[in-house]
Structure formats: C-alpha cells, structure tokens
From TrEMBL:
GO function term, MF aspect, one: adenyl-nucleotide exchange factor activity
Family according to the record: Belongs to the SIL1 family.
Protein's name in the database: Nucleotide exchange factor SIL1
Skewed-composition ranges (Basic and acidic residues): 1-11
Oligomer and partners: Interacts with KAR2.
Native source species: Glarea lozoyensis (strain ATCC 74030 / MF5533)
GO biological process, one term: protein transport
Alphabetic keyword roster: Endoplasmic reticulum, Protein transport, Signal, Translocation, Transport
Coiled coil: none
Keyword Signal: yes
Region of interest: Disordered: 1-82
Length: 341
C-alpha cells in the first residue's frame, strides 16, 4: 500500500530478503538455440508431370444437388400425426374410396410441405387422378366438378411443385402420362391430350378461383423442361391466351395469374425463366389480332395485354408483362438475324 495515497499498488519485482531474483533462478540453464533440419526429397525422385498434392483435384467431381434427399417433417404435438393422415389420404385417392373428398382436403393442407410434395409427385396413380381432376375430365368414378374436386386437385398440384425441384424430377418420369392421361369413365385414354382436354372446358368455366388454381398447376408443371416443350408444341400458349381473354372483372385474377406464369416460365430470367423458348416470332398488328381466327396466335399476346393494360391502368403487372414481351421478341428477332448471317 502506498502510505501517501492510501491506494494499493502492485509490488515491483524487487526481491526481498530471503528471495532470489529471476536472473539468479535462471543462472546455469543452457541458452543455446537449436534448429531441426528435415531432409527434402530430390526433385528427380518425383514422378514427372504429376502435380503437387494441393493441385490434385478430381477430374469429374460429382454434380451438386441443390435439393438432395428430402427428409420427412418432424412430428409435433400441434400438427398431430400428419404422416398417418397423408398416407391415408393417398390411399383413399388411389382407391377412389368413400373418403375421397376428405382426402383431397387433407392433401390440400399438406402438399405445400416439400416432403409431401415429393411423395405426391412420385406416386403415378395418385398423380394421374389429380391431373385428370384438374383438367375437369374426372376419374373412373369421381366427377371433377362435384364438391370442387377440380379446384382442390389443381391446388394440390400447384403446391406440390412450387419451389420443389425434387418433385419436378419425380414428375419428369411421368411426362407421357401427364401429357396423355387416362381420364373419365372407364379410364380409357382418348385422343385428346392435356391441352385439348383443358381447352374444351374453358368456355364453360364460371369459377374464376378454380381457373386461377388450374393456371397455378400448369405453371408448376411447366418448370419441367420436357413437359414445357410438349405444352408449347401442343398449342398450350393458345390455351393460356384463351384463359387470359375470359370476359368479366371476376377473371382479372386469372389474367394476373396467366401473366405471372408467362413471366416466371418464359420472360423473367430472375424468376428462373428459360429465355429463348417463347415467343419466337414478331408481334402481330392490332388489326390482325382483332380477327377472330387470329386472336389466339402467339403474335397477338402483345395486343391483348396492351388492350387490358389501357382498360385497367392500375394493373402494373400488365405493363411489366408487355415490356417483357417486347424485349423477348426483340431478342429472339435479333438472334434469328444473326443466325441467318
């Protein structure tokens, strides 16, 4: 303690009587420094042309799978036994049992989960029944319009495939079945494909929410490249434009959903769209598109979107869609001219 200030201070390292200093304690210890030398291999002993170990990487590293194996959801007390509910629902739909409608309701609640979405997509019989209901054709024993089954099935498909690359991989294996499903009484495969079956019921569809759900299901399936190409080949874009042109303000939600589908799948690269797939030709004139025989042509999208945009100026999405259409047509036209040169 400092007697003048009354504060405690650290004692200086001054040896008191009877103590040895640090220097005296270290006296006599060796102070030499040593170095260990490790013999290096001669340069000639290395294999000629062989890279250093740090540079040795696999020539063909395994491809990266962003999704990988999807684990089942963790059970919790609040959700109850979801797995049992899911399995029972899948069986009821597959067998077209009496609990069919309840099964659709339960799947509609669970399909948004990535795991359940994958399980739905990998089950061929269930997938086909959901596709048939979505198209409005019905299954062997279940009418699509009864109890809103077509709406529920479309919602299930849309939820199962949304942001679910693993489910898309699974559905790719059923591409032929999705394009040409066995629907209706007796489950006999008709000459009509996915697009034709759905197109046949567009005119009589009165429920805008149901049609919107069907557009969502189509958008999800279009993420699979093989189906997307088949869809375009079979005049699927005419089908979408027919949906866009449904009359009545109630169908504005359908128009917006169609616009979102076109942006996400064909025009907006930031949303994962594949550019250069569609459209590939120039826009048609307004005069041409006002003729009934031409109004569903690919070149008439711009005219119809522009007409709707002017009639509904608050719909900003329509303006964005029109700009994107013009940009993609310009890009496609430029690419065609360069290939000709």
């Amino acid at each position: 303690m400092n007697l003048e200030t009354g504060l405690k201070e650290a004692r200086l390292n001054i040896p008191t009587e009877g103590e040895e200093s640090v220097e005296s304690q270290l006296e006599g210890l060796p102070t030499e420094q040593s170095m260990v030398v490790v013999d290096q291999p001669e340069a000639d002993s290395e294999e000629p042309g062989k890279p250093a170990l740090r540079d040795q990487v696999p020539m063909n590293p395994p491809s990266y799978d962003a999704a990988g194996k999807v684990p089942p959801p963790i059970p919790n007390a609040e959700s109850g036994d979801e797995m049992s509910t899911f399995q029972a629902s899948m069986l009821a739909i597959k067998m077209e049992a009496r609990a069919f409608d309840k099964a659709l309701d339960d799947l509609n609640e669970l399909a948004h989960d990535i795991y359940y979405g994958v399980e739905i997509a990998k089950d061929g019989p269930v997938l086909e029944k959901l596709v048939c209901l979505t198209l409005g054709a019905g299954t062997q024993r279940m009418d699509a319009k009864e109890n809103g089954r077509d709406h529920k099935a479309a919602s299930i498909l849309g939820s199962a495939l949304q942001n679910n690359p693993t489910a898309l991989k699974e559905i790719a294996g059923y591409n032929k079945m999705v394009v040409n499903p066995m629907c209706g009484q007796g489950g006999s495969k008709s000459q009509d494909d996915f697009v034709k079956i759905l197109r046949s019921g567009i005119g009589g569809e009165k429920n805008a929410a149901t049609l919107r759900a069907k557009v969502g299901a189509i958008s999800g399936i279009l993420r699979e490249p093989t189906f997307r190409d088949e869809f375009i080949k079979r005049d699927g874009m005419e089908l979408l434009l027919a949906m866009f042109l449904k009359k009545g303000e109630d169908f504005d939600i359908v128009r917006k959903k169609v616009g979102q589908l076109v942006m996400d799948n064909f025009l907006d690269e930031g949303m994962g769209a594949s550019l250069g797939v569609w459209p590939k030709n120039e826009a048609s004139s307004s005069k041409t598109c006002q003729v009934k025989e031409n109004m569903l042509d690919d070149g008439c999208w711009d005219h119809h979107v522009d007409t709707f945009s002017k009639a509904t100026p608050e719909a900003a999405w329509a303006k964005d869609l029109l700009v994107a259409l013009k940009e993609e047509r310009g890009r496609s036209s430029k690419g065609s001219k360069e290939r000709e040169l």
